[in-house]
Amino acid sequence: KNNKFGQKYKLPPGPKPWPIVGNLPEMLANKPGVPKWIHKLMKNLDAEIACFKLGNVYVIPVTSPAIACEFLEKEDDVFASRPMSMASDLISAGYLTTALGPYGEQWKKMKKMISKDLLSPMKHQWLHAKRMEEANNLTHYVYNQSKSKNGHGGSSVNVRIAAQHFCGNVIKRIIFNRRYLGNGGGEGGPGLEDVEHVAALFTLLIHSYAFCVSDFVPSLRRLDLDGHERIVKNALRTVNKYHDPIIEARIKQWKDGIMTETEDLLDVMISLKDAENNPLLTTREIKALILDMMMATVDNPSNAVEWALAEMINQPEFLEKATLELDQVIGKHRLVQESDIPKLNYTKACLREAFRLHPVSSFNVPHVSMRDTEVSGYFIPRGSHVLLSKQELGRNPKVWKDDPHKFKPERHLVDEGSDVFLSEPNLRFISFSTGKRGCPGVVLGTTITVMMFARLVHGFTWSAPPDQPIELVESQTDLLLAKPLEAIARPRLPEEVYLLD
Ligand code: HEM
Question: How many domains does the chain have?
Fold first, then answer.
């Protein structure tokens, strides 16, 4: 393609592709560390945008916020699609839902509905009591553990389990009006069914866009060379085993007239009508949508809270500052409420810092270009997969000049007195992203993340277990903490406060 001066636009720099297979051999050799390989090559090339050819797909990773904004602001219309992949096809039941589908009528219908009918400010308000029930359960669950072994001396808590299940509980509560898929685990903890369910959601998240060979050479799909299809199908079976009976029974209750009033989002989904007064959503769409929302809720908040707490236990001056803010805003005679969130700027700065330095995955959900275009002086062919690097945007030394690899919440408090938000529309790191494919769950996601963190920090004094310093090491296969955070929690409020609901 030529620019206006008749010169040829070039593809962004990258490794030389082999005929037909492109850079697939190197990709395969680097699995599961494909993001590491991509980032290393970009560093060697000193490039903030690059081009890898996988099969006949151009994959364009980006590590500069300015270039990322060109993609998702200036050229947002062009990059509003998603790749078709084995996993996203299976998970979204043939692209029926919002997050994983290519641009088109189905995506538009679902995105509009999810934003307007399920995640609107009014619905958020309507669901307040359900979220509070789960925030109180989180407090009770941690409180029960913190005093279980040696009175008020504190006891070890697996923060990952508490965090992932708080997210799971909130989304199950607001969609299904229940916390447990079975009988629960006692003392506010997850039951076996809930553990299996959340684990399956994470398996699906990890495999949604996991550089599966057949996504780049579709003719290989039947062979399932990397075994991803089997893993995804197993996880889907697990999730469906729990979701389907609940959804089908509820649809029947509405049909039979046993249910007439909406109590949760599943009721809302069943009752929505189109312009001709027919049901807006089919059963298949409802099932796919619920899985989409469950997956969208569990990973980001739990990972941010686990990392923030781990970092702050190792740098106690930050934990003290956050605790001081919480004591000033809330005092010691009640628990944190959602109405406190606007005032918790230091707490939110800690969480922004966790999103910046410790995103849950290396890359944002991929965007696909719908026509040939030019970005940052390079030719980007139609069908390219654009991967904004969550990891390297947040650690870009040109943007984060002051120790980019250090956890420092203060860097988000530059404008004295102005409110801190978890969103970052300038893409200097990625929390909710921006543009047409931006996250519709900003309010719910922020509420879940801040409430969870604030309840943990305000309610308990946290420290490393004796003789077991907390190791701030990323796992080899993803960006979660390599070892789930185990820390000592000691109650720090009067006992009766924990028992209030
Ligand atoms: C702290 C919590 C959350 C974070 C950090 C987050 C972040 C994101 C990001 C980065 C994307 C991709 C944007 C892009 O393609 O550029 C996304 C998409 C999406 N998120 Fe969230 N999210 C959160 C919570 C939620 C919640 C609670 C829901 C709903 C229950 C939700 C629903 C969605 C949906 C449906 C999409 C797909 C949008 C589309 O493709 O058009 N998210 N989210």
Answer: 1
